[in-house]
Design brief:
By secondary structure, this protein is α/β, with parallel strands linked by helices. The strands form 9 sheets. A 7-stranded mixed β-sheet has the order 5-4-17-16-18-19-20, sandwiched between helices. A 5-stranded parallel β-sheet has the order 7-6-8-11-12, with helices on both faces. A hairpin with a 5-residue loop joins β25 (556-564) and β26. α1 (3-11) runs antiparallel to α3 (56-68), α3 packs across α4 (70-81) and α15 crosses α17. It binds ligand 6R9. Residues 59-120 form the Acetyl-coenzyme A synthetase N-terminal domain.
Length: 707
């Protein structure tokens, strides 16, 4: 058995539901409550009694089975809960995860024939959910909304699928989707899946250049977008961004014949939308004309489902490729257990479908379970900070899944004197307590570590001390939850993602790649495969192996640091590579650097992450200018604008630090360790600077720090 199993075995002897949390006003400061024993927060007896996994014993029993017999465990779920046109071959899973033994390969349910759209819609409709609400859509503007039942959703999906077929989209073709959170976004994903096309959703906050880069990489048959979207009071002209991207990709030899554009009437009228005759097509003009039924394209479990680009430690985004069968089984099962899903739940995940969370836990995981899903178009603090709880009350949301950055912005965290913190927290509290929130049952967190004080505020204030928090650790690459609480199963510790999901074997290794046991911290790796794992990086299997499987041979390397405490709980400590996590969005330092140096007056740039009150991490950029160019406020603004234009507004540096020189080793390597210390003003911790080619640059940088 694994180390982890031993930890969990000792966990099983812990009491469950042994303590109750009383509601104290002091909780608004996010401090530990007197009733928390050794930092444990216990689920209530009532919650545990009704939970799918009601105790550590039950978890342990299932976890053990999943590790000792993964093929039996997963094939049992796959065959009893999904529709397969044809069952998989003899092997449930075939894999090589060791670079020393040849090419990395992961296959689950190979030979099995299925369709994930069929499993989301037709299968649930056949099981009696035809008239159940599938999607509630809430517009940016309060008062505007819409909804679709499962059968209405199927009709819309089929119409689009038929249209896509009519313009020649076939199994295996890529489709680029650049849409905000309209119902048309999950509709598009499902329509692609229905006909075996491979969707690649690009977050609608990316710039035209980033979009063009992705178009050039995956060469789609069609681009699907809308004319504009409103976020808070701002109107964003998405179609203009697409137009610019298509000009750019044409320069790189990729021209797109069809740009299907949805008219998002609440944001912009048709008449005001720029149009290219022959290429651009209004969704509303064509899609509704197609039949509301569409035959399913049956695909192999290992046929690609989607590509999603994510940031890595070099400049070029990586096309993470997920396939059909394993991803389907994994997202559905993780959704069900980590949120203790019941048929009567109303589920709202605030993530955008442009990120993996929106793929696995807005669209596929919930829909595979036949859940009712809330999709919200706008900004969480518009028209005010109470909007989220307004939506929770309006739709009687029972499961609310969000990111720590949102929790922190709503609790108005601050590092001022505690008196002011208290006052501002009291003010922000009103935005929460104005609403009932009594429908809430389970809360969830994702994207970055949640600090214990934000955890407690979320738990005590938002959830009224009733709702367990599933702090789900996972990645674009993993497809679904990897380390996550199962609500009701065991006591939680604020800030810990707790234990691995079924079938997942996390290991913590030291620099040499040796597994370390017991209380420890190190690099987080995973042993063995799980059905939701990504299969390759699109067009670059070599990079897949180098990035993820070569650093610690025999394991999948996550890029995260992690520690395990004496009770076996896991604590994620953040990225250990050159990736920064800003408001839960992954950004490669190299991407920001290459955007900065594309500015004609910037000679060199070095970007590091710094702690940020609300965003978790902020972007701090050191820039060296071209010889003779003076640094000015105007130049600072134009550097930031360059990053906004090249990547997107969310990647704009929080701070530009003018650096006449950068600290480099004699071999010319930038010493980021030193830059990180300067950025966070930990000037007494600079460490050894004697190996620098020019040690003087450090003092120079410090002198310029706040200029
Ligand atoms: C799902 C998602 C992945 C990176 C990951 C880690 C961080 C995500 C976390 C968390 C601590 C959690 N991360 N969830 N860190 N606790 N619950 O966010 O995917 O965009 O690929 O980011 O996010 O650093 O490596 P992705």
């Amino acid at each position: 058995t694994t180390n982890h199993l031993r930890h969990v075995e000792s966990m099983a002897s812990l009491p469950s539901g042994a303590g109750k949390i009383s509601h104290l006003n002091a909780v608004i400061l996010g401090e530990a409550l007197a009733s928390e024993e050794n930092d444990f927060v216990f689920p209530s007896d009532d919650f545990s009694r009704q939970a799918l996994i009601p105790s550590p014993h039950k978890y342990l029993e299932m976890y053990k089975r999943s590790i000792e017999d993964p093929a039996g465990f997963w094939s049992g779920i796959a065959s009893s809960e999904f529709y397969w046109k044809q069952k998989w071959g003899d092997q449930v899973c075939s894999e090589n995860l060791d670079v020393r033994k040849g090419d990395i390969k992961i296959e689950w349910f190979k030979g099995g024939i299925t369709n994930i759209c069929y499993n989301c819609l037709d299968r649930n409709i056949d099981a009696g959910l035809a008239d159940k609400i599938a999607l509630y859509w809430e517009s940016n503007e309060p008062g505007f909304d819409a909804h679709l039942t499962y059968s209405q959703l199927l009709h819309r999906v089929c119409q689009l699928a038929n249209y896509l077929k009519s313009i020649g989209v076939r199994k295996g073709d890529a489709v680029i989707v650049y849409l905000p959170m309209l119902m048309e976004l999950p509709i598009t994903m499902l329509a692609c899946a229905r006909i075996g096309a491979v969707h690649s959703v690009v977050f609608a906050g990316f710039s035209s250049e980033s979009l063009a880069q992705r178009i050039v990489d995956c060469k789609p048959k069609v681009v699907i977008t809308c004319n504009a979207v409103k976020r808070g009071p701002k109107t964003i002209h998405l179609k203009d961004i697409v137009d610019a991207a298509l000009v750019e990709s044409a320069k790189n030899g990729i021209s797109i014949d069809v740009c299907l554009t949805y008219e998002n009437q609440s944001a912009l009228k048709k008449e005001s939308t720029k149009w290219q005759e022959g290429r651009d097509v209004w969704w509303e003009d064509v899609v509704p004309k197609y039949p509301t039924t569409c035959d399913v394209e049956w695909v192999d479990a290992e046929d690609p489902l989607f590509l999603l680009y994510t940031s890595g430690s070099t400049g070029k985004p990586k096309g993470v490729l997920h396939t059909t069968g394993g991803y389907m089984v994994y997202t559905a099962t993780t959704f069900k257990y980590a949120f203790d899903y019941k048929e009567s739940d109303v589920y709202w995940c605030t993530a955008d479908c442009g990120w993996i969370t929106g793929h696995s836990y807005v669209t596929y995981g919930p829909m595979l379970n036949g859940a009712t899903v809330v999709v919200y178009e706008g900004a969480p603090n518009y028209p005010d900070s109470g909007r989220c709880w307004d939506i929770v009350d309006k739709y009687k949301v029972t499961i609310f899944y969000t990111a720590p950055t949102l929790v922190r912005s709503l609790m108005r965290d601050g590092d001022e004197a505690s008196y002011f913190v208290l006052i501002s927290r009291l003010l922000s509290l009103q935005y929460v307590t104005r609403y009932s929130r009594k429908s809430l049952r389970v809360l969830g967190s994702v994207g970055e570590p949640i600090n214990p004080s934000a955890w407690r505020w979320f738990f005590n204030v938002v959830g009224g001390s009733r709702c367990p928090i599933s702090d789900t650790w996972w990645q674009t690459e993993t497809g679904g939850f990897m380390i996550t609480p199962l609500p009701g199963a065991w006591p939680q510790k604020p800030g810990s993602a707790t234990f691995p999901f079924f079938g997942v074997q996390p290991v913590i290794v030291d620099e040499k790649g040796t597994e370390i046991d017991g209380e420890c911290s190190g690099y987080l790796c995973v042993k063995g495969s799980w059905p939701g794992a990504f299969r390759t990086l699109y067009g670059d299997h070599e990079r897949y192996e180098t990035t993820y499987f070569r650093p610690f041979p025999g394991y999948y390397f996550t890029g995260d640091g992690c520690s395990r405490d004496k009770d076996g709980y896991h604590w994620l400590t953040g990225r250990v590579d050159d990736v920064i996590n800003v408001s839960g969005h992954r950004i490669g330092t190299a991407e920001v650097e290459s955007a900065l140096v594309s500015h004609p007056q910037c000679a060199e740039a070095a970007v590091v992450g710094v702690e940020h009150e609300v965003k978790g991490q902020g972007i701090y950029a050191f820039v060296t200018l071209v010889e003779g160019v003076p640094y000015s406020e105007e130049l600072r603004k134009s550097l930031i604008l360059t990053v906004r234009n090249q990547i997107g507004a969310f990647a704009a540096p929080d701070k530009i630090h003018w650096a006449p020189g950068l600290p480099k080793t004699r071999s010319g390597k930038i010493m980021r360790r030193i830059l990180r210390k300067i950025a966070s003003r930990q000037l007494d911790e600079l460490g050894d600077v004697s190996t620098l080619a020019e040690p003087g640059v450090v003092d120079q940088l410090i002198a310029l720090a706040d200029s």
